[in-house]
Amino acid sequence: MSDKPKRTALYDLHCALGGKMVDFAGWEMPVQYTMGIMGEHQHCRSKAALFDVSHMGQVLLHGANAAEKLEALVPAALSKLPEGKARYTFFTDDSGGIMDDLIVANAGDHLFLVVNASMRAQDIPHMKAHLKGVEVTEIFDRALIAVQGPSAQDVVASHCPQAAQLSFMQTCEALIDGTLCRISRLGYTGEDGYEISIPEAEAERITRLMLDHPDCAPAGLGARDSLRLEAGLCLYGNDITPDTSPIEAGLSWAIQKRRREEGGFPGAARIMAELEHGTARKLVGILPQGRAPARAGVEIHDQDGNAIGQITSGGFGPTVQAPVAIGYVHADHSAPGQELHLIIRGKPQPATVCALPFVSQNYKR
Amino acid sequence: MTTYYSEEHEWITVEGDIATIGITAHAAEQLGDIVFVDQKEEGDEFESGDEIGVIESVKAASEIFAPVDGEIIEANELLQSNPAALNENPEADAWIYKVKLSDPSQLEGLMDLAGYKTFIS
């Protein structure tokens, strides 16, 4: 796509706040503000950070039995998902690879989905083609912000008391300063927090309202990436792709019991076999022992110099205060404590497999 | 002491045939929070344009390219214990290398401060 990058409803606000704008998945987004990635990351872990995630695709599914029908495309159990509950899942393809990951929420008379910005153009036609009798509506007139961190409840509930009543993975519609918004208690940082879908015309006003709280500061895509990496959350396109199965990626927790037994989703044969017999490779956390970050693409060797995998995401973890990475390794080298070598700029650097996440998740259960 | 600047955003000060090389405040600002500096060792020889190290920020890895020919006579150890010094003080304490110049006349191909300011504006 050679089109000019698109702008979200908060573009002017990003510029006013000193956001350093970059092209991300066809959108002009702030990679950081004046505080910098490190500062924004720490602020999210200690207080609250606000991210514009309006580039992500918001989709409504209307129609009788929409949840049951969506089960034909994803391995999550959705047909009995209670109203006001959200669930993490992924579209799988016929060979059991991951086409995209997404959040599905039961919003009462419809389902509310959030898909990755880069996969909107694939996911919408995919659903339209396969969900007969379901009306698939991509929303273009609503912004999406995430308020994340231990102070997130304070920040959001001071304008919307109902937000305090939600627990992790719950969602509701509620007024924020007179505007009806969809508020979901979830996120992509490992911290407690919310994602709030706001009518575009009110987006800047409500975002400024949140930022007026002394604990709330804007954060960009840079901090979003380092936060999710420390929290051990997969990034679509890096850690999960059509070439990786959910079981290899350690996402079997997102396939509920009934679906494991019954199948009935694309790639079920492979995925059910992997659930039973395991996989040849696994996604693991990796702690480089030195100070050099190991980034996506770095080769992983065993101690005898045999190539056994590759880093899929990596960088410096501001909370861990050391480099952190995740990547795929042969299953027989995937136990925590396993010593590895990472080939960084041609030189083997010692590293250790460790359990994910790197930092404990602080969700409000 | 004259300071020279390269298009790769390095500064060089020279005393005799010994030069001190670092990155400019502008470069440090662009890189963001610096977390690791991969430095070459004392005795390593290089030519102008060679990669002589890598600066890792929270965002990305960026190579350091030699602005002149020479030999490394000292790598600043401060950057190993405190890479963030490159953000705080890139044009003084946080120099990267002291080098012995092979051909001081190469300095004439670099910019002065006024030229560099124009270059980055």
- How many individual β-strands of chain B? 9
Integer average pLDDT of chain A: 97
> Using only CA atoms, what is the Rg of chain A?
20 Å
Proportion of residues in extended strands of chain B = 35-45%
What gap, in angstroms, lies between the N and C termini of chain A?
Answer: 41 Å
- SSE order of chain A in H/E notation? HEEHEEHEEEHEEHHEEEHEHHHEEEEEE
Spans of chain B of at least 5 consecutive residues whose pLDDT stays below 50 are: none
Structural class of chain B: alpha+beta
Oligomer: heterodimer
Largest sheet of chain A: 6 strands, mixed
Helix content of chain B: 10-25%
Query: Which bin fits the share of residues in helices of chain A?
Result: 10-25%
Q: Outline of chain B, from the CA principal axes?
A: globular
Number of distinct helices of chain A? 10
Shape of chain A: globular
Largest interface: A-B, 18 and 13 residues
Main β-sheet description of chain B? 6 strands, antiparallel
Cofactor (chain B): (R)-lipoate
GO cellular component, one term (chain B): cytoplasm
Organism (chain B): Planktomarina temperata RCA23
Function (chain B): The glycine cleavage system catalyzes the degradation of glycine. The H protein shuttles the methylamine group of glycine from the P protein to the T protein.
